[in-house]
Records
---
Amino acid sequence: MTNNSTPGVPRTKPAEVRLDELMDAAQKLFIEKGFEATTVSDIVREAKVAKGTFYHYFNAKPEILSALRQRFSRHFVEQVQLAMDACDSDDWPTRLDVWCRASVNAYLAGIELHDLLFHDNYYHGHGNSERDRVLAQIIELLLSGKRHGAWQLERPELSAIILYHGMHGAVDNAMHNGITDRQATAQQLGEDLSLEFRRLLGC
């Protein structure tokens, strides 16, 4: 019997690849059509998989929306952390500057997806684990800077909330006012936020 399969090449895709393809398809369609207008049939057609594959991973459409939120926030934190890790380990004011710039960049780069995932009544009524993931990163930055004498903080958790919502509010306001050059806006807004947050922290 002749085996025509290529040695070392799996005949089926790994589960994590199929899951990513499903999520990518859903993400594309949600942005194009909206969450309510997109059906499970649309998603599996776009992903080129059987409907049973969808229900292997998700019980219903809202679950894939939740998975997309988790993926977005995970990637957001990873991008920002990668940028901060490129700084000198003991240069905490610069790490704060980089957090501002990288956060604005990551938010603006995916703002259409962000608004789809996070600006809805269902999300705001069902916990905020994705927000908590970002807040944990900010709190760690603030506490580490405090330990090394970069700034003094009485309530780091409150300061983290101010930084988190300040960054989001500034980007949302810029989008509301109209942006023609996202890259230039991200650069300027990141610098402006950094100056304001440095004043807040006294550094």
---
Amino acid sequence: MSTSSTPLDVTVSPSSPLYITDTNNQFGTVTVLPGGQIFVQTTGKISIAALVKSTNNNAKALVSQQATGDINILGAPGAAGTNGTAGGNGQNGVAGQNASCNWASGCNDGSNGTSGAIGGNGGDASDGGAGGDSPATTMYIGKVTGTFSVVGGGGNGGNGGAGGNGGNGGNGGNGGNGDSSGAYSRGGYNGGNGGNGGAGGKGANGGNGGNGGLINITYGSLDAGSQLIAHPIAALPGNGGTGGIGGTGGTAGTGGSSGGANGTPGNTGSNGVSGSKGSNTGQAPQINIVPGS
């Protein structure tokens, strides 16, 4: 019930919508200016002595499936899922040491380049939340002046998060160079292999649409040309998130001169699987608008 002992008169405008709640649901005259909207957020009994449009404009146009109207009884939309985190890039390989030869003392050996590290896998995303059910509503309006749209339905399901991209593989280190002096020589050393890219994370599933609750609106009288128009809607499920993209493989290290072999490039990581659309469309509410007292 309203916290006020006397029902209050209210003017509703685009900048000042009316939210009908558990503690604010008993009203005198509610005047709706062009573009003003009413939102019902309670299952308590609602009483409006007179509902008036300030002009003879038509009911608020509904241009999409989840549009809002003049009087709105809607469930909360589901929260979007969280995206997966990106995988870290692999560290690059270390370049090999060059050989060093001296005609009198021989050679100090060089070394191969080391391989790049594998990129980290992208994280999996989280699912979108289910849309909320719209509140079951009982409303009495003593007198209606003007045409009002009554929109009811559950909230749309949240979209699933996108999988994180895989990290890139590290590059292979270059091989050390060979050397020669007098009778002593060393060939070039091999380059390191590139690291493989990390796999992309999985995209998450979308949430289901919420259901519409039973809506009963009773009115005492309608002025000439006035009406309440029901617009029940079925809430849509959320879309699945995209899978993460696999990381790029690292480049191969170059073989040292002379004669060192190049390393092998790393492979691109696999792409993550995309999530699925939510499995259920919400049930549209039953909206009953009848004369009575």
---
Amino acid sequence: MRVSVAWVLTQTGLALRLRGGATGVGRPIDVVLTTELADPSRWLSGNELVLTTGIRLPDTAPQRAAYLRELDDCGVAGLGFATGLTHPAVPQDLIAVADEIGLPLIEVPLETPFAAIVKAVTARIAELQYDDVVRVSRAQPHLTRAVITGGAHAVARELGRALAATVVIVDAVGEVVACHPPPADVTVLDELRSAVPPGADAGTTTVVLNGAPTTVAHQRIRVGSRSYGELVVIGASPLSHIDQVLLGHANALLALDFDKPARLNDAQRRLNSSALGLVLTATADVQPAWTLLTPVADSYRRIRALSIDTDVRDALPAIGVACADLLERDGYQCFVHAGEVDVVVIVPGGLGLEFAGRLIDGLDASARRAVRVGMSGTHLLDDLPTAVQHAARAATMAKRGGAPVEFGAVAGQILLSDNESRKVLATVADAVLAPLVDHDREQRGGLIEALHAFLEANGQWETAAAELGIHRHTLRSRIRTAERLLDCDLGVARVRAELLLALLAVGDRRPPVPN
């Protein structure tokens, strides 16, 4: 806490007179000290009002000028020069130098003890410090009431009044939550953002705003590892220690206020996840859980399910949290359940693959590379278990780290995506296709290849022949041979379907060729 040289001069009981350096009367005084050293500068730290009788004042004008300039270089607030003892008056050359450098030069009459000046300044600083303590003690209850009744906006208003400064509260992404008083120019906020370094918990810096040097003090608003933004104070001068206490009090209140909905959201997340898990695994009546799921559906009671699986099982909980964060940021109800094999997410029926893609993009790089995402079609809420099954099936058709797959887009692949079904089909294929495999191995007949192309082309001769690069008559000959060996009629749709499934199950339509 400090007083100014101007205040000291207004104390009529001291009978002080300003003789030079009038432009510096705004300089602050931390302490008053007396010295008769010829060169006291090495023992000075700045903001002192130095008192001297001039006993060891240099004899020549240049030396006296150097003495005064050295004091100014040390940052002293002013020089009190006693008259009537060693010097009858303040030397004129000192007055001229004081005016030149703007260092207040004060004449102290013989009847004014130096101790009286020391006591006056010390008492005033003590008064100001006490006033500050009273101011803070009165402001703290106002801040507490403000956070209860008006949240961040009310806290910014009360803190701004208490500090006589501009208070800005920004969220974790740099958007302004509250500002008091509002800045006249929006560019001030842009300059403010650049003045607050990212990642710093607290600090003070000086910037130029609207052409004037301005002090910016900031503190990170956080609870544990969770950060909610920054509390910033913009003023003409640095905050005092007592102002820092008030800033810290406001910060603590804001942290509690911001963390309250976060705690409620966490509880709601856990409740929604439990309800979804009950519905998916229930063996008894879980009607209350179904009631909790109602908000996730759109206005037509439609939902979609997403299934996210990963080969890193320990990552499932973190993936669930990332999905929940994205849902809440986009304003959707959060229904996410991290199970033993996948993460299930339920969203309104109007959301599509674009949302599923953003869900993947929200994961960190390592998790993104390891996941497969499937999305169901649109279902009524009552059909949620089926939607989840379809999403899980679609996920098996997706590539790890690739784009999400929608269930409706995997028609013709679903049966083969199931391992058990594929094993059965492969067993059947080995028996049914054996005559063709033996023929191709012995005679290089290309029957397997021809049959596969023919079936994939839905019996279109020209298309299948073009695919194989052979004449259609050659293809007809091979298909007739295949029908004879298999003892079947390829004109029957069910026969064609069974053979195509068999070929797809074994995968390779070209059997080994003998040397």
